[in-house]
Design goal:
transmembrane helix, TMM79 protein, mainly alpha, transmembrane, membrane
């Protein structure tokens, strides 16, 4: 489903990436796009804090209620996945040709939407969370494979430079 969503958005959404000839400009563009990917994480932190305040679990070492535990786990996992996403996206931006830089904001949007889907499905029940997690993890895995391909096959001479 993820390749279909990304391809459909790539073809049908009417925007193009700006002209980014240098690697530093591409990294700044990626950093700006990644700012939007923090939205689900920040929203999760806010909801986690509110749910902790509204529950009777104000003791720092006390047992957490299920609602508080769901939001805390979501925020923790989202932070870990965001770090992986951001570093993969930064490397990806250096290897993509100019005409494919439109993928940077599209993958950012997919990350944010898939984290929100994971959060909703995780709140419904733990057995439903696989769809949202796979929408987050599989594009991340594809980016990692492309980055490794770019480093070891396309430009092996520039691997450490």
């Amino acid at each position: 489903l993820c390749p279909c969503l990304v391809y459909g958005a790539y073809v049908f959404l009417p925007f193009d990436a700006p002209l980014l000839p240098t690697i530093s400009a591409r990294l700044v563009y990626t950093l700006r796009c990644a700012t939007f990917a923090t939205f689900p994480v920040v929203l999760g932190m806010i909801v986690s804090g509110i749910s902790r305040l509204c529950s009777s679990a104000l003791e720092p070492f006390g047992e957490l209620h299920r609602e508080v535990e769901i939001h805390r786990t979501y925020v923790s996992q989202s932070i870990h996945l965001f770090i992986l996403y951001f570093f993969n996206m930064a490397v990806l931006a250096t290897y993509l040709p100019q005409e494919l830089l439109k993928l940077i904001p599209l993958l950012t949007g997919l990350f944010a939407i898939s984290r929100l889907i994971f959060w909703m499905s995780y709140a419904i029940g733990r057995s439903f969370r696989a769809f949202g997690f796979s929408m987050t993890f599989l594009p991340l895995l594809a980016m990692l494979l492309w980055n490794l391909y770019g480093m070891f096959v396309l430009e092996p001479a520039n691997l450490l430079s």
